[in-house]
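Q: For a teaching handout, I want to show students what a protein-ligand complex looks like in token form. Below are the inputs, and the small molecule is iron/sulfur cluster. Please produce the holo structure.
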Amino acid sequence: MTQSDNSPGRSNQEYLLIAKNIKKYFPIKMSSKVMTHRIPLKAVDDVSLIIKRGEVIGLVGESGCGKTTLGKLLINLISPSEGYLVFNPSEELVKDLGKDESVEEKEFRDASMYNLNKRKMRQLRRKMQIVFQDPYSSLDPRYLIKDIIAEPLLSFGIRKDEAYSRSSNLLREVGLSDDFVNRYPHQLSGGQRQRVAIARALALNPEFMVLDEPTSALDVSVQAQVLNLLENLRKKHNLTILFITHNMIVARHICNRIYVMYLGKIVEEARTEDLFAKPMHPYTVALLSSVPIPNPKTKRSRVILEGDVPSPITKPRGCSFHTRCKFAFEKCGWTSGEIVESMNYILDPTRNTVLETLPALSVMEVIDENRLKISYFGSLSQEQGETIKEVINKERREGKIRSLFGISSISLENGSILINVFESIRDPVLLTSDIEHLVACWLYEEKNSSAGSIIERA
Ligand SMILES: Nc1ncnc2c1ncn2[C@@H]1O[C@H](COP(=O)(O)OP(=O)(O)OP(=O)(O)O)[C@@H](O)[C@H]1O
Ligand code: SF4
Ligand SMILES: [Mg+2]
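A: Here is the structure, written as tokens, with iron/sulfur cluster included.
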């Protein structure tokens, strides 16, 4: 049996890393007058992924969707709430993927990096490094550049003279001359500082690097230079890279494959060219709609992403994108609370003369996630109930207010209107459109193999 390789040497296996069902929930303190309690902020919520050796994987999504947290989890810089992470998985583990669930679970548990003791983890740590966005805060201002780069080498027992000689070589590799060795970080420009951060990350000859927005704090001209440098270093050092970015143009330029993240979940995964040619998830479509297309004959309509990303503390039910999705339909996760605002709008008698003859609206009560009760002053008659139902149904048929798709029934109960929304809501899971294109969206649920892009449908 081949073991998952947690040894210090380099491996040549095809797969570098497998993450299975990883979650990171941060406990957030909530205080009221009566008590203090903690509720989970779901920064990363059940992510599974496979990274092959030599790939440059893009991780994209809006601010706050969990990219940095996932990047840190993938090098075990922070520990997960749940899940497994296997680095250099054994052939056997790869072979068993998707077969017997209990066997798979055991193999993952035994091989997971999260279960390694401190000594073993320290050995493995050198194989994976991270470079953060902000070169101003990631380098200790009290140390000379040569000490900053030599530090990881010294901490792994490399002799002092060798560590400093390697430190100079690394600086040259990232395009900085020997003059820089005796300078402090504040004596460098932003681009030069980021080069130093890259040199330090390379010092221990890692296999895997997480680059977290490595160029976004730099001027555009410097960004291009640093990106070119990274591309050259990747080839020379045979690196596998997770590249976190907001910038879809940069992602298209340097990544082989892209993961799109929304509120802690991966919602689409594809080879870069496939993702740009045929984005499937409505969120990806919106993200890409602002990216210029190289072929002027191809038209792409601009999709404006309305509203902010909801809080990961109170994630929307079902598909968490449903509050902003212009394709959302019945089963996407609407709750009764989400239709209150629409009801106030629709049932406003100043908008609709049919409603003027009714008694005044008294209260809208969210009974639970699935039921909304609308009461009027006085009990509604059957006829008045029918009038209200027809007003709501007309808006539903027009389809302009998407939350109304969530309504499963409207009835008159004891003189009030009772609205039910669809229950049994599940999160959409990643489905295969083709073997290398996965999407988590109910639009593709049944016809996954022949699913067309919603760009084509729109
Ligand atoms: N240590 C922490 N404690 C509590 N909440 C945290 C912590 N770290 C991150 N979060 C929260 O987790 C969510 C995801 O944060 P994360 O930094 O991973 O997002 P991101 O996609 O990298 O955002 P950005 O693009 O702005 O860098 C956010 O709501 C953030 O506030
Ligand atoms: S499941 Fe698809 S259609 Fe429904 S809200 Fe989510 S992204 Fe939109
Ligand atoms: Mg981040």
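A: Two things your students might notice: Confidence is low (pLDDT under 50) at residues 448-458. The pocket of adenosine-5'-triphosphate (ligand 1) is lined by residues 26, 41, 43, 61, 63-69, 312 (CB under 6 Å).
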